Glutamine--fructose-6-phosphate aminotransferase [isomerizing] (Paenibacillus baimaensis), 366 residues
Amino acid sequence: EKAGFDHFMLKEIYEQPKAYRDTMGSRIDPTGKKVVMNELKMTNEYIKSIQQVHIVACGTAYHAGMVGKSIIEKLARIPVETDVASEYRYRSPIITPNTLVVVVSQSGETADTLAALREAKRCGARVVAVTNVVGSSVAREADDVIVTWAGPEIAVASTKAYTSQLIAFYLFGLYLAQTLGTQDEAYIADVVAELKQLPEKVEQILEHAEVIKECAEQIATHNNLFFIGRGIDYAVVLEGSLKLKEISYIHSEAYPSGELKHGTLALIEEGIPVIALATQPDLFEKTVSNIKEVKARGAYVFGIHTTGETELGKAVDQMLEIPQTIPLLSPALSVIPLQLLAYYASLARGNDVDKPRNLAKSVTVE
Ligand code: F6R
């Protein structure tokens, strides 16, 4: 059942190249230059009327939604807000018929997410569900459904469902951009070409899992650590931090790199591990200076960056390289080492990786 892997989580991490390919599947036009989404019932006229997008989800799916915000804003130039589903209904969100609400749920059964969907519909919004389960409650009640073809996810800690949600957001973001004309055709073709290369690049990262395992064993001896990142990297470190907490029970916090000096820097002491994600070229210099701030206070820094960045290499204690892609697509690669880090840290601590304490795979109570 685990296909030779020690745990479902590891199996599911290694299934990601396939999950990416299956989720892209027939949604990429045979010319390879644009996206087709035949499952969407929304008209082009409707798409042109969208004034704002709300992305609502819980946990890991919420973190995918944070990346989704960057994707939709960058590609389609529509303002996007993200909300944790258990908060959404209670803040009187401004939902109008011109609001597109995107709910994200692997199981499609999360009670808070379903309640948010119903509230959105009650207010007259159109709802798109991004879900891994065909026929789930969320899929049945939404106006449109984008299925992530990750296949069944058994481990409590979500991995391939998260990355498939990212792929769904790339496809949907491109589709909106094509319809709205917010990006030229050549750029869209470039993004599509890069998307198609992601599965192979994930395979390259997985081939170097040994290096990440060593880092994880080092981290597993600590009780506290930090993740830092800027922009889209911040959304990814939030997910890396959740994954680590969830299965290794090591406390960590994810911070936007530039925010550390507004308080949290007080917690940086000799030997504390800091995992710094730096994949965005336009933010690179600033991130390096944030790394120097924590280094100067004794932190031990693991830097995750794309190949060819020597500047960072000099600033950190250990480097983990990921293959190059366009900056917007980097989350689909950079999260892989963070998943492996959580997995191996949990293993090093002798925890039940697939069934962490106090947690359930599907949360059907509010
Ligand atoms: C973390 C994790 C949870 C879920 C959350 C939402 O690894 O799996 O945070 O992401 O409970 O679940 P779904 O996506 O089924 O709505």
About this structure: The longest helix spans residues 185-207. Residues 58-61, 105-107, 110, 113, 157-158, 246, 362-363 surround fructose -6-phosphate (CB under 6 Å). DSSP finds 14 helices and ten strands in the chain.
